[in-house]
Amino acid sequence: MASKKQHLDSLSKVALFSACSKKELEKVARAGDEITMTAGTMIIDQGQTGREAFIIVEGDVTVKRNNRKVATLGPGSVVGEMSLLDKGPRTATVVCDTECTLLVIDQRRFLGVVEEIPAIAYKLLASLAGRIRELDRAYYG
């Protein structure tokens, strides 16, 4: 079982939460549940409806889009984060390469934290705007 400090360290590395204070990160961490998945376990299935996000605390995962590997991610990475904001289909499949310890945050509990601490919403919007700008630069130059 990962420590509270490991959960906070992992969350602080996630771009989506990087502007959050320690107090805000603690609230987000309390909204999550720690799970352990064995190597080979599918965490996310592309095309399925998303209802939660997974923060990798320990271990490595492979991300595939349309059966093509697009990334290998490790501790401090997040997958499924768009599901915290909508219930759209998953855009990729994610499988554990190793045994993984994950912090799972479902949309309902996450939105409860945002309602309790509205300042988090502004920080998330700024983070998402930054990601859109990066994608725009990568695509359009």
How would you explain this protein's 3D organization?
This protein has 141 residues and is of the alpha+beta class. The protein has one domain (4-140): Jelly Rolls (Sandwich). Helix content is 36%, strand content 28%. The chain is built from four helices and eight strands. It has helices spanning 4-13, 22-30, 107-116, 119-140, and strands spanning 33-37, 42-44, 52-58, 61-65, 68-73, 78-79, 93-96, 100-106. A four-stranded antiparallel beta sheet has the order 1-8-3-6. Helix 1 packs across helix 2. The longest helix is centred in the C-terminal third of the chain and has 22 residues, at 119-140. The termini are far apart. The model has no long low-confidence stretch (mean pLDDT 91).
Concise synopsis of the structure shown:
This protein is of the alpha+beta class. The chain has helices at residues 4-13, 22-30, 107-116, 119-140, and strands at residues 33-37, 42-44, 52-58, 61-65, 68-73, 78-79, 93-96, 100-106. Helix 1 packs across helix 2 (22-30).
**Sheet with most strands:** 4 strands, antiparallel
Give the name of the CATH superfamily.
Answer: Jelly Rolls
CATH architecture: Sandwich
How much strand?
A: 25-35%
Oligomer: single chain
What is the CA-atom radius of gyration, in angstroms? Answer: 15 Å
Regions with little confidence, pLDDT below 50 for 5+ residues: none
Note the main attributes of this structure.
four-stranded antiparallel sheet, alpha+beta, globular, 8 strands
Write the layout of secondary structure elements.
Blueprint: H1 4-13, H2 22-30, E1 33-37, E2 42-44, E3 52-58, E4 61-65, E5 68-73, E6 78-79, E7 93-96, E8 100-106, H3 107-116, H4 119-140
Antiparallel strand pairs: 1-8, 2-7, 3-6, 3-8, 4-5, 4-7
Helix pairs in contact: 1-2
